[in-house]
Model the fold of this input.
Amino acid sequence: MPQSANSLVRDIYQQEGYVYARSPEEIAKTYGFSRVARLASNENPFGPSPLAVAAVQKALATMHRYPDACGTGSLIQALREYHGDYEFVTGVGMDGVIETCIRVLVNPGEAVAVSVPTFSFYGLAAKAQGAEVINIPRKDDFTVDVDAFIKAAKETKISFLCSPNNPTGTLTSRADIERIADALDGILFLDNAYVEFSELDYRDLMQKHENLIIGRTMSKVFGLAGCRIGYAFVPAWLKSVYEKAATPFTVNTLSLAAATGALVDQEYVDRSIRHVRSWIQKIRDTCRFPVLPGGANFVMIDTTPMTGDACAALLAEKGVIVRSCRSFPGLEDHYIRVCVGEDWECEQFLAGINQIC
Ligand SMILES: *Cc1c(COP(=O)(O)O)cnc(C)c1O
Done:
């Protein structure tokens, strides 16, 4: 590395970036486990849908060709069959969609508003684009302070709100989303990465609001985190500018095929949701620490008097990986986030946490 490397790298990339979970291999090796419970990344533990696997196998033979531009062909078709007649854009994970939306809408120096504590990538992506990030605190119970949100986000080009919220799990009502969308001058990006696990459905709000984007992902209930594919419901006017700003041929042939296969396996999705709901209930009933209300495939747990890091470290010694919430901006340091895994993983977690208490 040249000595002047620090002056070559943009300032934003010299600060803390995305925080990844500790690796299962490292924890297994350090504490002598043959397998560890992986409950830190909100993935689907069931393995991919067999229909997704079959679709990828078929697509392997076409790898020598570039994929459909912007995933326009079969995936958009499959999304329409799944959701109805909406406009969609696709990306490398919803993360890719978020990044492209900011690239399309925000000039350097302009403001982006984020309801916090929440998923860190909105702020990171906005700063990387040279934007100013306005963090809007949620209330003490982590519900959105709608008036404060509107006041702070009113003039921004784009603002981000996550429901069910990561990491708190908190749901925001359709009425609150509508009030916010109506009041803003710019776009409201509603992150629905976990919406399938909740009882809420915001999709038809697209028909009433020209300034709403609803982000979705194939990484969670659809079990394709490793394929890196996400999409969003967008107003019609945004689709063509989005496609101009996106990296060419962003989503690869195999991921497009996997997503198309996963979207037709409703039984897999239903089974995943049933499994998650029943374990969330069991965790609420038996965990000795307070479990916050929420509607995702994970829960946030208050570990007071321990810090999130201390609790995550104790659980790692018991062969369970959870996410300490320390790095979420705007959150006090006494929470962990735990997702539903396979039965044995959830059992190992509950046994572990209840021994700590
Ligand atoms: C997991 C997650 C995403 C996106 O994940 P991708 O894998 O990039 O599709 C987006 N928002 C939230 C809140 C998430 O937790």
Observations:
- The chain has a mean pLDDT of 95.
- The chain has two domains: 8-47+266-353, 50-262.
- The longest helix spans residues 266-286.
- The chain has 13 helices and twelve strands.
